[in-house]
Amino acid sequence: MTEFTPFDASEYLGTDEAIAEYLAAALEDPDPQVFLAALGDVAKARGMTQIAKDSGLGRESLYKAFSPGSKLRYETVRKVMDGLGVKLTVLPHS
């Protein structure tokens, strides 16, 4: 019987371009939990300890914030995004 390991997106987010594309794709999903999960994947890829330091948030708080079903506040999302060095951009529908 073949055994599969769970897919971990954070293993494929080694460049700023990959991170930007991943987050942009996640934002297109109507379910906000998809974006929050993607943001957690990116934080994991960069290292939670480093993101905690760069965002001014506690490492344990980040793990809790990115657990499934958590309700993140915009302020927390913004701090994490600033810590990651990424920003949201709004464009009109084409």
TrEMBL record:
> Could you tell me which InterPro entries the record lists for this protein?
HI1420 (IPR014057), Lambda_DNA-bd_dom_sf (IPR010982)
Stated name of the protein: Addiction module antidote protein
